[in-house]
Amino acid sequence: MGYLKVRNVGKAYKRYPSKWARLAEWITGREWHEKHWVLRDISFEVAPGEAVGFIGVNGAGKSTLLKIITGTTQPTTGSVDAGGRIAALLELGMGFHPDFTGRQNAYMGGQIRGLSTEQISELMPQIEAFAEISDYIDQPMRTYSSGMQVRLAFSVATALRPDILIVDEALSVGDAYFQHKSFNRIHEFSEQGTTLLIVSHDRSAIQNLCDRAILLERGFVIKDGYPEEVMDFYNAIIAEKENATVEVRRLEDGRAQTTSGTGEATVADIAILDESGQRVEFVDVGQVVTLHIEVITHAFIERLVLGYGIKDRLGQVIYGTNTHLKEQALLNVPAGTRYVFDIVFPANLGPGSYSIQTALCSTDTHLVNNYEWRDLALVFNVLNINKSHFAGCAWIDPEIKISTI
Amino acid sequence: MLHPVMFRSLWQYRGFVWGSVLREFNGKYRESLFGAFWAVAGPLTMIVIYTVVFAQLMRPTLPGHESTRFAFSIYLCAGVIAWGLFAEMLGRMNSVFLEHGNLIKKANFPRICLPTIVVFSALINFGILLGIYLFFLTIIGHWPGWPILSILPLLVLQLLFTIGLGVALGTLNVFFRDVGQITGVVLQFWFWLTPIVYTLQALPVSARGFMRFNPLLPLIGAWQTVFLDRSWPDFTSLLPLAVLTLLMLWLGAWLFLGRVGELVDEL
């Protein structure tokens, strides 16, 4: 139950040169179409209970792949073997009928998933309670806002815990409250053993929910691994321009360091220094440290901005800024210059492992000119040596005043 | 169509099929004040108009019924009701996959459910009309008696023929949208080329020979025989239609089963 085996799946849509070509093909039996491949030779296996995120730019084939797994679309080549009941939230709604009431649509949504009317009647109070759309449930669907439709669609699709749950960007529509609520439900399902397949462009959603990510690009699986690693690679691909390269290096601890960029400027050295200027790997909570970054330029650069981010163990950025925001961008930099950036800050972080990512670009974002983007450029650890124990990833030491009235 | 897996999955999805039939029936009239009255208003209007227009013209051509009151209305209704079932089912099956494209793209359910919903939905409208008709026959003292049982085999034959043809056209229509347009036009011609609002006897003999090629003629004729003549129809005359029905069922099954996977790519 809940396993998924995708073997050599490919999908091609037929394209005919003219409207009559199809008729000619049907009658003569000769092939008149050309095949437009949107997925090619996709193979992977998902173990029961695993949570997999699918990422990729628009048109990479994510939705088509999920539709094939759901069974609404037939693959052109290969096969999909899924164990157990699949529930899918594909895009907005689920073929709701605008003139029927929410309740009628809920019944239809259940029936179309093969549930009996009695089963749905039993689940109905729970569906209503979860959707929280109150008396709208008996109003025609066309009076619903898109957020309300998503609430109902999600509630119906997840009324029974499925063995495999497929969510295609549907969650980004609801309001923050409902997003939290639905994430909680997905989390619960995942803990109870439901296999999750999620498409999202939201980095934190993928990293929070998934223990694996698959990156699709032009119909191919180009990366399959830890979410953080794949997300870094994905960001690098987005930034990739012209002659830019993407390089992945394995670090000693097995994590992958992704470097990309056009290479006009590169980070030559990076280190964390203590007050005396010594390189350190371990930092005390609250200790004032210097992030020492040396940058070499290899070509003339009109405007050079250095950005950095401190990421936690899960890859979430705890803090990040750049010299553009600090209004310290370098202008008209000649080739062959070596710059030293000493960034001094107190390490007000909770105990744990952190990494630094660096970016060399010309503006606020690395999407315009990406000279170099480096994930996991440096890894350091924060230890709690002399502070009282506290929870969390930030050190926000309070002064607590207690009094009676 | 004669695929055991298909019937099993249909049975599994009976909740969806039956639920959709009911929702459609309720939904069609839920916003209207007179509700289900509108389901029969269309055919009733047609019957009234044709009775008024044609009754006087046609009376002499209903031999043996010169003394029967409402003879033409009885004749007309039998034809209109039977034809109405055929035309409604065929017309809707034609567009059933296109209409529910949204559903087909988003949910994985046996596609054969959709034509099945059309069949039951059309049968409900047909049942209401037939009920009114039988009530009317009882009141005027023209109850057909035992021959009424023959409408069951007539109905089965008609349904199978329509399903075969309808599924074939519905599947084709997804790939060649012209099919839907052609069907509408052909249905119009077909209606007027079938003796429903006129009688076969009213036609010149030369035209009657031409009518032999209309496969629905013996079927509609059988309906008219049951209700007007109150006698058993000539079942042997339906043999060509039965053969054609088998052919249509095979054609529908071949097209549908062969192309069902490709359907969604064209919606």
Summed up:
The complex is a heterodimer of chains A (405) and B (267). Helix content of chain A is 23%, strand content 37%.
Characterize the structure shown.
With 405 residues, chain A is of the alpha+beta class. Chain A folds into two domains: 4-229, P-loop containing nucleotide triphosphate hydrolases (Rossmann fold, 3-Layer(aba) Sandwich), CATH 3.40.50; 245-251 and 258-383, Distorted Sandwich (Coagulation Factor XIII, Chain A, domain 1). Chain A contains eight helices and 20 strands. In chain A, strands 10, 11, 13, 15, 16, 17, 19 and 20 form an eight-stranded mixed beta sheet that branches. A six-stranded mixed beta sheet of chain A has the order 5-6-7-3-8-9, with helices on both faces. Chain A has a three-stranded antiparallel beta sheet with strand order 2-1-4, covered by helices on one side. In chain A, strand 15 and strand 16 form a beta hairpin. In chain A, helix 3 crosses helix 4 (117-131), helix 3 packs parallel to helix 5 and helix 4 crosses helix 5 (146-157). The longest helix of chain A is centred in the middle third of the chain and has 16 residues, at 176-191. Chain A starts with a strand and ends in a 22-residue tail after the last strand. The model of chain A has no long low-confidence stretch (mean pLDDT 84). Chain B has one domain (4-28, 40-266). Helices cover 72% and strands 0% of the residues of chain B. Chain B is built from eleven helices and no strands. Chain B has helices at 4-12, 14-29, 37-58, 71-99, 101-106, 113-139, 151-175, 178-192, 205-210, 217-229, 239-263. Chain B starts with a helix and ends with a helix. The relative contact order of chain B is 0.15. The model of chain B has no long low-confidence stretch (mean pLDDT 85). The interface between A and B is medium-sized, with 31 and 26 residues.
